[in-house]
Amino acid sequence: MFSIKHESKTNSEDAIDNSKQWDDNELTGKTTCQKTLRYAKHFELVDTCANESSFMEQMKLHGLSFPVVVKPPTSSGTEGVRLVYTYQGLRRVAEKHWNEQNCESNTNESLLVMEYLQGFEYVVNCVSVHGVHKCTDMWHAIKSIYADQTYINKSTASTLQDNDIKEDRQAIGSSSPLTLSSQPDMPYCFRYESQQLITAPNSPYNNYQCRRVIEYVFDVMTLFGVSHGCAHVEVMYLPCEDTICLIELNARMHGDLPRATDLIGYNQLSIFALSHMAPMKFFKDIPPIYRDVGDIKFNKRFIKSPFASHNAGNSSLAQNETNHSNDSSSYSAIQFLKQSLSFAKNHFKTRGTDEKQVEIDHNINTLDPIPFNPYSNESVRVIFLHANRDGYINFDVLVSISQLPTFKRFTRSLNNALEQYLQLDSLSEYVLKERQKTIALKKLNRIKSLEGDDEKNTHDTTDRNDDDESADDSNNSEHKQNNNEDNIFDAGMGEYYISLEKYLTFETVYRECLQELKQAHRVTKTMDLITSPGCVILQGNIDDMTQDTAVIRQFENANDRNGLYEHT
Questions:
Q1: Which domain of life is it from (predicted)?
Q2: How far apart are CA 499 and CA 493, in angstroms?
Q3: CATH, residue 276
Q4: d(CA 562, CA 556)
Q5: For residue 171, what pLDDT is reported?
Q6: Same domain for 528 and 391?
Q7: Residues forming beta bridges with residue 135, ordered by sequence position
Q8: Running along the chain, 568 residues long, what does each successive block of 10 average in pLDDT?
Q9: How many domains does the chain have?
Q10: H-helix or E-strand containing 260?
């Protein structure tokens, strides 16, 4: 079925200056494999001519086994990304997406077969100047897997029930193994459920898990030469290996900004602007890792060492902190971070004498992707909306969501849709008045036209000679017939205008405007990030956000007039 491209290794020293290459996942994997950084095992399919046996040989050659992830190399928004458990499932994906034009206007001339990673997925956003990286925010992402019914053959579609699909839905974002066996040949799509802000990135939890993730991201950015501008990086922490693995590196800004400015004090966009307008302020005042939310003792000039109570004999680390705060140009932020992290690793190695504590630290089942923040219980959560079928937005429910206690704002077109709906009364009033003006103008023009005809007829009658009184009777009868037709037409037009005036009520115009608004914001069945109707950003107490999240999902799942979607 497929022909496999044997990847040729590239030198890590080679400069990468083409911006399109940042979206090439194949190139990303080739480059990271030159270093000691963990990367997803993969190979590339370049045409459809290899059989199953040769495909399985290549799987074995690259250390892969089912399940695997299949994706286009240059797409985005999880478009075309599918999880397959069998070769038959992989064939279905290839037959559908091969040579298809993706959302980036690129043709899928090949597909990547990649290792399926299970762990904690993180999104890390950074800004860099002259190779000095600053992490502005970090998020924990949760996805779910759904059976993609678009691959079902017509012959088997009648035997597949909705319950089968529901049973195959499973959230991912933990280290628990994922088994979807009811439909092994069915491809599965990834749908984002939520992203939550890491409010304590400097926490010592799990051997400084989040800081190690950020250090890995800094290494990846340095490896790929991302020395200026923004970076949006997706990685996964693998608890079973206690390591971090790269998923994607995008040399661009995160979407839907701002998100957590109220809690952090800045965002990726504002720091990016600062890096251009005041680079020295960027070096001195912005820490390599944003401060823990609620930590009022945090020194904004440089990242405060979290090992102050343990490094009395480690004066070199404290001295390095001082040097960095005094001269940021002579001391790289990533070097400082690496030294502090190396100290953390040594510190936790010496603590291994406490066997009970070590057992707790390395028990994967007790690991949490979001470290506890002792300073604050406030956070930000992004809820990705899902539509189970094609339909329309129920704007009344959208208003109800906007009134939840932790609601902050909608993203994408939903924010505009809500604003337009809230202004629908004034818009309908405006449309009604404009239509009334149009009808009144048409009536006035018609009246003027009739008055002009009457004056002309009167003038012609006055100027007639007495000899015209003996005109032919046939001409008089024709003139009377024309007058009768004009009278009938005028009566019909009058009734037409009267019916228009009756029809032009606020209620009818409002219904028309509402229908136009629904058509402009149609929703399709959510299969990936691109087809999601939008996001809801919540901010507040974590428990309150959890309750509001449950309410939003209830609105989504309701099929009556109280549901978020009106299905067609």
A1: Eukaryota
A2: 10
A3: 3.30.470.20
A4: 9
A5: 54
A6: yes
A7: 126, 289
A8: 35 35 47 65 76 88 93 79 91 84 75 92 97 97 86 48 42 48 80 95 92 95 94 95 91 87 94 95 95 76 34 35 40 46 41 37 63 95 93 95 96 90 94 85 74 58 52 52 51 61 82 93 89 94 97 92 86
A9: 3
A10: none
Residue 499, pLDDT score: 64
Range of the domain at 502: 382-452+491-568
447 and 346 share one domain:
no
Query: Model's pTM, two decimal places?
Result: 0.73
Residue 476 lies in a domain: no
- Angle formed by the axes of helices 25-32 and 205-223, nearest 10°: 110
Q: Are residues 217 and 293 in the same domain?
A: yes
Sequence-ordered list of residues with C-beta below 8 angstroms from that of 280, at least 6 positions apart, any chain: 328
Predicted local distance difference test score (pLDDT) of residue 8: 32
Instruction: For residue 232, give the amino acid letter.
Output: H
Residue 305 gets which letter from DSSP?
P
- What pLDDT is recorded for position 493? 59
State the virtual CA torsion across 382, 116, 388, 513 in degrees, nearest 10.
50
CATH number at residue 72: 3.30.1490.20
User: Looking up tokens 């291994």, which residue turns up?
Assistant: 352
Give which of 552, 528, 556 is closest to 191, Cα–Cα: 528
The closest of 446, 449, 443, 444 to 501, measured between CA atoms, is: 443
Q: Which pLDDT does position 61 carry in this prediction?
A: 92
The DSSP element (H or E) to which 392 belongs, if any, is strand 391-393
Alpha-carbon distance of 556 to 525, in angstroms, equals 12
Measured CA to CA, the distance from residue 287 to residue 357 in angstroms comes to 31
Q: What token pair was written down for 549?
A: 């999240």
As given in the structure block, the two tokens for residue 311 are 């490094």
